[in-house]
Amino acid sequence: MRRRVVLPLASAGAVVASLAVAVPAQAHGYVSGPPSRQALCAQGRVPDCGQIRYEPQSVEGPKGLRSCSAGIGQFAVLDDDARGWPATPVGSSVTFTWTNTARHATSNWEYWIGGTRLAVVDGGGRQPDATVSHTVNLGGWSGRQKVLAIWNIADTANAFYSCVDLQVGTGGTPTPTTPTPSPSPTRTPTPAPTTPAPGGTWTAGQAYRVGDQVTYGGAAYRCVQAHTALPGWEPPNVPALWARL
């Protein structure tokens, strides 16, 4: 006769609970322009970033933090100020653009340099668009600065964090200068051949430029924002990046 093994309900519940805790959070949003540190990693412009390269939109933690990584160990590279993050040149103001892969109801957005809050934008508890832009005044600041951008969610205790490195005071329109004519004849250089836009089927890991066209699921799409494709960013899922033709 075969013996039956009965698993106690309490033990089964503990197993289910442990499995539920192990499920990772879903993707949400990050600052894509000027490129935040996680955006630079996703674009491959900063190497050896680890896991953040594949999920720049997942830097989520409790509200009130002041760290680029939201205290997430696997994203700790974002807190390393000595890593040589490229700084975007800007003038006395800058427009930050969020790319939202999950459009949560929003309490507000905040922008900080150190302990100074530069700006707060009310979200009104509403669901934002797939992309959201805010222009922030940088008057009184100059040189290299790290801006911490925070997206505070209305119906949870969490927020999303992005650090953006800027070179303030160098983003104005340069004064045109008259070039000194060369005393000797110069040969007109041969134009460099242009690289054809990626075509064919949309592919994760491919870098796309504005205007590139791909097919996915039997439909054609045109890129409207330069980016490096990630799993989950298929054209039908991210209208901020692709327009259907």
UniProtKB/TrEMBL annotation:
Keywords: Hydrolase, Signal. One of its GO terms (cellular component) is extracellular region. InterPro entries: CBM5/12, CBM_sf_5/12, Cellulose/chitin-bd_N, GlcNAc_Chitin_IntDeg, Ig_E-set. Residues 176-196 have a biased composition (Pro residues). Residues 199-245 form the Chitin-binding type-3 domain. Coiled coil: none annotated. One of its GO terms (biological process) is carbohydrate metabolic process. Pfam families: CBM_5_12 (PF02839), LPMO_10 (PF03067). One of its GO terms (molecular function) is hydrolase activity, hydrolyzing O-glycosyl compounds. Residues 172-204 are annotated as: Disordered. Residues 1-27 form the signal peptide. This is Chitin-binding protein. It comes from Micromonospora carbonacea.
